[in-house]
Amino acid sequence: MLPKKIFLKDIIIIKLIMVSFLLLIKTSHSIEQYTAHGGPVKGLAVSASNNLMASASFDYSVVIWDLNPIKEKLTLIGHDAAVNTVKFSPNNDFLASGGDDNNILLWALKDINNLNEEIQPIKLGNHRGKIADLEFSNNGRYLISASWDGTVGVWDLKKRKQINSLVGHKGPVYAVKYSKDNKHIYSSGYDGDIKLWKANSGEYVRPIVKNGWGISKFEVDEKLNFIAFGSTDGQIKINKFDKDETILNIKEDRVPILSMYYLENENMISFGNAKGRMIILDTKKWSLVRDFNAVNGPIWDNILFPNDSSLIVAGLDDFLTRWQIFDFPPKFLERPGPARRFNPVKEVSNGEKQFARKCSVCHTLVENGKKRAGPTLYKIFGRKAGSLEGYKYSKALIESDIIWNEESINRLFDEGPDKVTPGTKMPIQRMKKIQDRQDLVMFLKKATN
């Protein structure tokens, strides 16, 4: 018979193992993944009625999701480049989207709710640079847009036209907001300012924040008297709105803040950075709610859901990741994380590595490859450019006389798509090394046949 001391010690160890095992089981159910896109997810939004979610992707599409439970509903095709941002109007009339094609599109929610697969968006207008952010006025009459051309666009949705262009930022504009009374517009950008404008006239009033680094995301709550922002140097800062006084400053991690979400009624605000870290704060006490690694890679957007205390994050993966905020160990996710198709960790040939890095985000190698920004490369050798049935090509590629072969594919990556296929939707990808281009061509010749 074992001594009593050892027996009790063994019981304690067994209990600890059981608790750890149960925690692990519970944690495994805390992470859910939802797949509908064929490329990284850039933006998220929830409708005012809380029954729909929209996600914007590098694959040029917007996916509409039913909520409770989360389920793919409809895919919207209309942009000619990556879609960066989506927003629902507060009156449930429209979904707005903006992308790297510089365009702002409006989608009628009545068509979305009726599952109209042939929805034709309204092209509201465009900037001279890509669209980084969109925001509706609280009455749903106006829309503002932040662009990398350095301006803020003001759009009248009844007249379907731009009524003002706010010029004053030095460099790209990253984020825009309306004040609660619709009388003012706030904007932030590369220059590190959060600027205040009069909404009706577009008159510039003053900078309300001057930061040394670019301000990627921000929130203003005049009633609760705070301005919260995240910057490109990784700083998270909370200032008082009515005077120059800092409430909280988190700056130990010099990784850019890319996303932010304010859940006003629940007194929570969340920040996501370029390495997958999520920080959630209580806006009443300005205390830390959660600090953990949610994904491996950038968090381009995130949404907090109050009903079930969950968080959805969007990033480099094709899928959305959902976490239960209060239901998991804070350091569950390990670094550097799983391999991705565009960043393989196993040993592969140089040609396959080049395909993974340069091509796989937009293209597949299989016959029925769908939901990517570009068409499948299956049997590409000998195929005329712009001729694959079922893919929406640009006019420039359809009218080209290019036949894809060793020489034309090599030239595409030598000179770049902007020279070989000018006017196409293909992002600029070049390879300086001759050997890399040759290895890619040889890999494609074998893998696509």
Tell me what the structure shows.
The chain is of the alpha+beta class and 449 residues long. Residues 1-29 have low confidence and may be disordered. Helix content is 16%, strand content 38%. Helix 3 crosses helix 7 (434-447). The longest helix has 25 residues, at 4-28. The chain has two domains: 31-324, 7 Propeller (Methylamine Dehydrogenase, Chain H), CATH 2.130.10.10; 350-447, Cytochrome Bc1 Complex, Chain D, domain 2 (Orthogonal Bundle). A hairpin with a 4-residue loop joins strand 18 and strand 19 (226-231).
Please state how the strands of the largest beta sheet are arranged side by side: 1-28-27-26
The secondary-structure class comes to: alpha+beta
**Would you count the extended β strands for me?**
28
**Oligomer state of the chains in this structure:** single chain
Summed over residues and divided by their number, the pLDDT gives a mean of: 87
**Termini, distance in Å?**
70 Å
How many distinct domains? 2
What is the 3D shape?
A: globular
What name does CATH use for the topology of the largest domain? Methylamine Dehydrogenase, Chain H
- Count the helices. How many? 7
